[in-house]
Amino acid sequence: MVERIKVVLDEREIPRQWYNIVADLPKPMPPPIRPDGSPVRPEDLAPVFPMNIIEQEVSTQRWIDIPEPVLEKLLLWRPTPLYRARALEQALTTPAHIYYKHEGVSPAGSHKPNTAVAQAYYNKVFGIRRLTTETGAGQWGSALAFACRLFGLQCRVYMVRISFDQKPFRKMMMQTWGAECLPSPNPGTKTGRAILEKDPNTPGSLGIAISEAIEDCVTSENTRYSLGSVLNHVCLHQTIIGLEAKKQMEMLGAYPDIVIGCAGGGSNFAGISFPFVCDKIHGRDVRVIAAEPAAAPRMSMAPYVYDSGDVAMMTPLLPMYSLGHTFVPPPIHAGGLRYHGMAPLVSHLRRLDLIEAVALPQLECYEAAVMWARTEGFIPAPETSHAIAAAVREARRAAEEGRERVILLNWSGHGLMDLTGYDAYLSGRLQNYVMTEEDMRRSLEAVAQLPKPPPLG
Amino acid sequence: MVERIKVVLDEREIPRQWYNIVADLPKPMPPPIRPDGSPVRPEDLAPVFPMNIIEQEVSTQRWIDIPEPVLEKLLLWRPTPLYRARALEQALTTPAHIYYKHEGVSPAGSHKPNTAVAQAYYNKVFGIRRLTTETGAGQWGSALAFACRLFGLQCRVYMVRISFDQKPFRKMMMQTWGAECLPSPNPGTKTGRAILEKDPNTPGSLGIAISEAIEDCVTSENTRYSLGSVLNHVCLHQTIIGLEAKKQMEMLGAYPDIVIGCAGGGSNFAGISFPFVCDKIHGRDVRVIAAEPAAAPRMSMAPYVYDSGDVAMMTPLLPMYSLGHTFVPPPIHAGGLRYHGMAPLVSHLRRLDLIEAVALPQLECYEAAVMWARTEGFIPAPETSHAIAAAVREARRAAEEGRERVILLNWSGHGLMDLTGYDAYLSGRLQNYVMTEEDMRRSLEAVAQLPKPPPLG
């Protein structure tokens, strides 16, 4: 028989609980604060999120049961397969063993539905009838559209106008699942009207879209807002990825020396890594690497501050590595990594030196992605290519050192809806965007006014 | 625990042999013939196909070993999961149990790589360095590009110009896998030049593209041609779908009353159904239904004749149901079903009354596809929507009759590269194309000149 390259868990082996790393933090994370510096209270969040999700957001319980109706929907595509990337290893002539967790098999094509399904469920049982959200390139918007349909919720997605116009296919996915997808800024919101009056041709931004989605939420009946990354409960819902991967590695008698995920808002990185960081906290030797774009090197270069999650400062101030909420990342194709901040939990682990960060330029990521497609077959999303490029670096280092390292990466999604980036790369039209010292100086100036979280106790 | 909705085979349970239905035919199939009426000899095909594939094309052996290097590549995405479509059943309030085999999990997103990988392998071991082929909407071209890359073969795809211009994403997939994708007609071939001289703005056609791919093949060094459907060896390679599905149904203690596949050239239909038709030949009670588009109702309406596989008549004459090789199917979104003929093996089974055919209009298929996406989650390809629409009809009939029927359908591919059809449907811009009596009369006139296969012995 040919060598085993894929491990598939039976659906009876799907994890029944999420892992909450808050319970294992060696030092507590600073709380989110209000503009006056006082800690955010659960009731402050109630107009935006249902109370059952707020409870998860602040929970310190280590294991949280996955409700049966959520499990049932997750089983549509979960457990996802774990692969050994043997063809890539051979192409790299590395002694490293490279494993990947394939999150591209979901209906929306990425890890995003893991939390979308959970959030739609909690809103449904809380009596909410409608969710609003924002989306950039459309990965999150399509995942939430899918999840809302499964639970019979209405869904409205504010999509950054430039993506709305340039990437119509994600919009069509959302509509196929029955969601409304509107270009942002939109004349239907106060925020949108004000911006359109100033500049009718604005391309929009994620910051504007968040503000519109929250405004729509708080001014509508039976409506809440849903966020696809950054927050604790989102990271929590994604831990099913790492929990499955651990079981699958165990079935192979293997344990990773290095765990890698790309990091935009931080949730897919959290998903693959938190169960392994738990082991590390308890003494196991494992390196955990967040792969950031060089165009937005938050944990690689930016300061740890209290910053807002959106441009309009409608969210509380979160303790995180941030380039400043006014920072507009350059137009790299990995739209899901174009974020100014980083999930507070991920940021806290970085501060505690439990994880590392590496910043990768776009061209190196596409080179790795094309090598991946031509060896392993599946075409990765531009976001995923950052995790791949980081793994390639580590595999090459293992080759230089002649060491048989075990690398696990999260293959967060496929790139079938993002082929224009490949086209640009293959025809030599793609460029790197790297944060220069001058860019960094401007960014530091912007964040200098922000409150500083207390030093580690 | 929630109810079991998915059956995943361990990779050790992947079928190790393909099933060749030729060995079980109750009456022999007429052979392909040359224009003079004499049977085609294997050596006639040698300029176009490698001899190991020609041997498979004419083999009468019941079981044919899948070579280990092919198995190894198939294991990238196989065995594919079998699902129970419970949410769809509930939406239809039917007592029928609907199962589907999910072929959309391959890197190219459809069943096509099942044969592309095998064909690339056989060409490789025969010493061929380069393959040519044609593609319409791009499903087959991208599958062959992927497979050629895995075995280190060069690949050139002639893509019908109108699709090349209107659907650039499939082209980008092919290029990401390292293939050349050229618009057809192309000035690089004699055929292409002649056509472009007459009409520089021609949209092209599949018939022209086949002619160009074959011309390129026979005039180039170390090059052969590859076809993605219709021929016996292609149907053979697809039987892994039905063989897996049978094992998976057995694991559930179930056996289908009805097996359904959509039928363009016939290979995905052959793949899901031949192992069950085998049972039927040996006395088992099972209905097998080919879902055709009403725009090209070959087995539903057309005569059984000897016809060419392409417009330029470069292929031998094949015994099949055909609307005539000059018939140009209307522009339905299911590009993979826009073919004038039908695989000889599938046609022969129809003639033997071992299978049924049903012709479905486009709007009914999109209605079923949207219902599918909104219940089962995965967005189907427009081709696949025909199998779904046929299953919905049968499930509704089961509800009317109050009978618990077991339906198995082949979910041949996802629709993420074909979302414009959904957009047209959802915005009310989509129309039906149904073959009228007048259309049929013209078609019958065209095929009236063609040779007739002998009556069933």
Protein traits:
homodimer; 457 residues; alpha/beta; Rossmann fold; 2 domains; four-stranded parallel β-sheet; 15 strands; 41% helix; 16% strand; globular
What does this protein structure show overall?
The structure is a homodimer of 457-residue chains. Chain A folds into two domains: 19-24 and 48-66 and 112-232, Rossmann fold (3-Layer(aba) Sandwich), CATH 3.40.50.1100; 78-109 and 239-447, Rossmann fold, CATH 3.40.50. The first copy, chain A, is α/β, with parallel strands linked by helices and 457 residues long. The N and C termini of chain A lie far apart (56 Å). The first copy, chain A, has helices at 42-45, 51-57, 68-74, 86-92, 113-125, 139-150, 161-166, 168-176, 190-198, 206-218, 232-251, 267-281, 298-301, 344-351, 362-375, 382-401, 419-426, 437-447, and strands at 6-7, 17-19, 63-65, 82-84, 97-102, 130-135, 154-160, 180-184, 223-225, 258-262, 287-293, 304-308, 317-321, 356-360, 406-411. In chain A, the strands form four sheets. In chain A, strands 1-4-5-15-10-11-14 form a seven-stranded mixed beta sheet, sandwiched between helices. In chain A, strands 8-7-6-9 form a four-stranded parallel beta sheet, with helices on both faces. The interface between A and B is large, with 46 and 46 residues.
